[in-house]
Amino acid sequence: MDNRVFALTGVHNFRDLGGYSAGRSKLRAGRLFRSGHHFGATPEDLTAIEALGLRAVIDLRSIPERQAFPCRRAAGFSAEVLHLDDFPPRVRAETAPHIEAALRAGGAPEAHEMMRASYDGMPFRPELQFMLRRYLVRLAADDTPSLIHCFAGKDRTGLLVAVLHRALGVHADDIMADYLLTNTAGDPEARIADGAQFVRQMHGGAVHDDAIRVIMSVDADYLTAAMRAIDELPGGFDGYLQTQIGITRDQRAGLDERLLEA
Questions:
Q1: What's the CA gap between 219 and 131, in Å, rounded?
Q2: Secondary structure of 63-96 in the HEC alphabet?
Q3: What structural domains and CATH numbers belong to the chain?
Q4: pLDDT per residue as tens digits for the range 8-39
Q5: How far is it, in rounded angstroms, from Cα 243 to Cα 64?
Q6: What whole-number distance in Å separates Cα of residue 111 and Cα of residue 103?
Q7: What percentage of residues in the chain have a pLDDT greater than 70?
Q8: In this structure, what is the dihedral angle of CA atoms 118, 15, 35, 8, given to the nearest 10 degrees?
Q9: Closest CA to 123 of 82, 64, 164, 184
Q10: In this predicted structure, which of 13-27, 62-76, 100-114, 145-159 has the lowest mean pLDDT?
Q11: What is the rounded (10 degree) CA torsion for 134, 233, 180, 79?
């Protein structure tokens, strides 16, 4: 699929995550989308997004993130938005992994290790498990177009998309290739600059340039760490979906039925 990346101006990393081979089948294109936040969306961006006919938006950002960077919508926007407002308040929603890394990193090597370590625990963050379940349950019941996004559209979104791809039988090489596409999709320099401004705003400006580039990019080591942590659980990946996320066999079958081509 050659045209999965959308050339938007104010929304970074917007792309179709369908079209990949999955065993003897293939993911349907034009149904599953991913991106960063839409705070900077231009009128032209909103027109392009509206044309996709989205019926659901899964917003993985924390409530403070959404309050600080509310997504812009087209005038006729009517999609259901799933977010963390319904998340149990007794459990704190953590910040984006790249923000966590920025708060602790020195140079590039330390930033890389902070990001990798963050991915070790990402599959078990309660708020991400909560949203992963909502995402998969929705997709298992309804195949109308949907979009999943976080702030940069690379870590939280990247992990949940990788889990979805794996659940549908996408080959590991394609899962990794889709994850790494963040580094080249659209205008990565603009995305890094946008993220750097936000990171420095939160951190008082004391973040090295080389650390910023690491923090605002993705690396195979990160997703490998997350998947290894899942695979080491009793029951491995299937056990993770069933026990940790609460996805039933019928819901797994629903994902296949609605998202794979016949």
A1: 23
A2: HHHHHHCCCCCCCCCCCEEECHHHCCCCCCCCCC
A3: 15-259 (3.90.190.10)
A4: 999 999 999 999 999 999 999 999 999 999 99
A5: 30
A6: 10
A7: 91
A8: 130
A9: 164
A10: 100-114
A11: 0
Cα–Cα nearest to 199, from 187, 181, 211, 188:
211
Catalytic residues: 150
89 burial type by CB count under 10 A (0-12 exposed, 13-18 middle, 19+ buried): exposed
Q: Is-contact 65 151, C-beta < 8 A? A: yes
- Summarize the confidence of residues 61-80 as an average pLDDT: 92
Global pTM value: 0.93
Is 44 buried (19+), middle (13-18) or exposed (0-12) by CB count in 10 A?
A: exposed
169 contact partners, CB below 8 Å, separation of at least 6:
22, 23, 25, 256, 260
**Are the beta carbons of 175 and 25 closer than 8 angstroms?**
no
pLDDT per position as a tens digit, 163-197 = 999 999 999 999 999 999 999 998 889 888 888 87
What is the b/e burial string over 162-177, where b = at least 16 CB atoms within 10 angstroms of the residue's CB?
bbbbbbbbbeeeebbe
